[in-house]
Amino acid sequence: GENMIEIKNLEHAFGNKMLFRQEGDFSIYPGVNYLIGLNGTGKTTLFKLLLGFLKPISGTILYDNHKIGDSLDRIGVVFDTPCFYPYLSGVENLSYFSKIQSGEITMDRIRTAMENWELEPDQALYKTYSLGMKKKLSIILALLRNPDYWFMDEPFNGLDTDAKRKLVEHIQTYQKKQKTIILAAHEISFNLMLADHILLIHNKKLMYFPNIRNIVPALIETSILLPKETHLEESMQPFIRSQSDLERGLEVRTTQRDKQNVIDLLRKQKINILGEYEGDNSIKDIVQRLEELSC
Questions:
Q1: What are the beta bridge partners of residue 149?
Q2: In terms of C-beta density within 10 A (0-12 exposed, 13-18 middle, 19 or more buried), how is residue 86 classed?
Q3: Residue 121, C-beta contacts closer than 8 angstroms, at least 6 positions apart
Q4: How far apart are CA 81 and CA 274, in angstroms?
Q5: Helix/strand/coil (H, E, C) string of the chain?
Q6: Would strands 205-209 and 17-22 be described as parallel, antiparallel, or unpaired?
Q7: How far is Cα 243 from Cα 44, in angstroms, rounded to an integer?
Q8: Residue 227: its pLDDT value, please?
Q9: pTM value > 0.85
Q10: Contact 174/155 with Cβ under 8 angstroms?
Q11: Radius of gyration of the chain (CA)
Q12: 195: Cβ–Cβ under 8 A, 6 or more apart, which residues?
């Protein structure tokens, strides 16, 4: 297949502190690969290894059978904290960096791209940019290259609602074109809805769960609040993960997959629903559900 990243025997450590070791060789597929891991488990380090900024203590990484050095012109990156020249304007920065990376890109194209993202090309110096503006500049630079591999570290940080929606649209376009996207980002349930595959760093292991789209609704938990003293019928039990008596009522936890079944049964029982909200989708919970589902 095209746009694959083949990873073998990868492991990395800092000094004698083991960071992670790959669990079975695998290839990262085209589509959105959502990278999940607790803080400090090595997500940014994995990015650096995949991009060739760091050398692993063991293992190989190949882009369509080519070494990283031969694939750089096919890679775009959005860093969590982008590095541009503070005393240049946005358009000057993009012009400079795109020249280095992919040869001449016309000023017109750069200006149009900036205007599409509602950035004023010439006025402000980069050092006066807000976090959201910096993030947009980094996204534009990555997209100017039309990369086959698109790495994003917390790309939604600092973006307003419109810019978030625009970025999601770009991600979906790249998905359809069978490009390979590696995304590390916080809001788990939001990003899982975009994901085709999951890259997971957990308990010092690097694991890959391909083609998880159809199980995502079973990974995301959602809570329903019911009046106190509500008695739930047996028929509901298979769809309920857990429940607790709270001050404000009975909280019932189910998954997105089973939520409609629960609501239908509650209506049948004529039970009043006081509220619905997203459950606690912590990384630990998601990992536990992934492991249950993939056994």
A1: 75, 180
A2: exposed
A3: 89, 90, 91, 110, 111, 114, 115
A4: 41
A5: CCCCEEEEEEEEEECCEEEEEECCCEEECCEEEEEEECCCCCHHHHHHHHCCCCCCCEEEEEECCECHHHCHHHEEEECCCCCCCCCCEHHHHHHHHHHHHHCCCCHHHHHHHHHHCCCCCCCCEHHHCCHHHHHHHHHHHHHHCCCCEEEEECCCCCCCHHHHHHHHHHHHHHHHCCCEEEEECCCHHHHHCCCCEEEEEECCEEEEECCCHHHHHHHCEEEEEECCCCCCCHHHHHHCCEEEEECCEEEEEEEHHHHHHHHHHHHHCCCCCCEEEECCCCHHHHHHHHHHHHC
A6: parallel
A7: 36
A8: 95
A9: yes
A10: no
A11: 22
A12: 32, 33, 34, 183, 212, 213, 216
Tell me how many degrees the CA angle 264-265-269 measures, rounded to the nearest 5. Answer: 120
How long, in residues, is the chain?
A: 295
Which neighbouring-strand residues pair with 77?
151
Question: Which of 214, 237, 215, 225 shows the shortest CA–CA distance to 278?
Answer: 225
Judge whether residue 141 has pLDDT over 80. Answer: yes
Q: Which two tokens stand for residue 231?
A: 């008695």
C-alpha 5: how far from chain center: 17
Residue entry with tokens 């998601």 = 286
Of 1, 52, 62, 48, which is closest to residue 20 (Cα–Cα)?
48
- Best CA proximity match to 191, nearest among 155, 222, 161, 150: 155
Cα distance between residue 203 and residue 37, in whole Å: 9
Q: What would the two tokens of residue 96 be?
A: 């400079």
pLDDT single digits (tens) 190-208:
999 999 999 999 999 999 9
Average per-residue pLDDT for the chain: 93
